[in-house]
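TL;DR need structure tokens for one chain.
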Amino acid sequence: MSKLDILVAPDPRLKLTSQPVPVVDDTIRRLMDDMLETMYAAPGIGLAAPQVGKPIRVIVVDLADKGEEPQPYRMVNPKIVDASEDLRVTNEGCLSVQISMPTSSAPTPSPSNIRTKTAKSTR
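>> reply
TL;DR here they are.
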């Protein structure tokens, strides 16, 4: 695995439209492993491929609490198919912003629950 460079806003590559991934192959699996290593080192809880200069629909997330074993989740071509109407407000940050401003986060309302559909990965 390799640690990748995280793009920092206002890098214009962060605004590119991400393309769907046609097939989950070893290259995509390796990218997701590298993204996880990069995310953990940052440290963060989520990282999208555009943040490492790859304008494709790939996301990695790990919501394990401190002291828990890592619980990495890899998503390819994610799509939100359902979202609860009730919102919760949590302090959220962004690794593409936090690199230049380590204390930046903001209260952000988001659905309490979502259901996603993703391409199947053999991991």
